[in-house]
Description:
By secondary structure, this protein is α+β, with helices and mostly antiparallel strands. The protein has one domain (about 5-265). Helix content is about 25%, strand content about 20%. The longest helix is centred in the middle third of the chain and has 14 residues, at about 90-105.
Amino acid sequence: MASSMKRKHTLRVLGSLAAVLTAVGCGSPPSDDLGEVKSAETTENALTANALTANALTANALTANALTANALTANALTANALTANGLRDPLARMFLKYAVGCALPADQTITVTVDGATYSFPGQLGLAPDWGDQHGSCDGECQRWVSACMLARVDAAGVEREISVRGDNKALHPAPGEIRDYSVREGAYFGNLFIKGQPRFLCVAPGNTQDTRVCGDSLANCPMTVVGSCDDACDNGAFRSFADCQTKTNGGVTYHESITVFLPK
């Protein structure tokens, strides 16, 4: 697979539940045994649980609708008063940063000006590229893919970690070296951050009882609802990922759009 494809889905994640805007801690550099995956593009992330739940773009259902009903472009964001006002909130800008990174490909960047300050939000994975078209929008499928990606990029301890994200989406197909060097399944993430109630879920990979990267020391304090083992909640997806994951609540809702995280061995 071409190196441009390899660059799309190996991510360095840096997040913190305690800090909102400041990255906490410093992780170890990648091991020399990562082989060809070392050339994969990585990015330092600082997505926090607060940015998922307490920002002006998602806490207000009207603002979330304004975001997804319109194109993910600078003109559309600033022309809509609800979204433009929401972007005054630093947490909303953090949310948008990761939404853009998950939705748009690496050759696209959105630049907006808010109260005289300029902010740039680069694309990376390209899970929902049509959202960035001039007349684009983000339907339910788009919302669920972007949400799964954002949930997978939360880190409870604020430690830099390289992860491989995989799922039944062509933007998530890994290179052979990535499959080899990132072989430890952590869990799967799914939900919808753009609708009322922000349903967000995770399941742990078979044999795991914790998800310390995302939840910290206890699943009870996790910013997502833990539905148990992925073997019980999901079907098998592409590249050892999980798909069609069920929430097992309110009669059970099935999410085809889930993302499985793999850690370096």
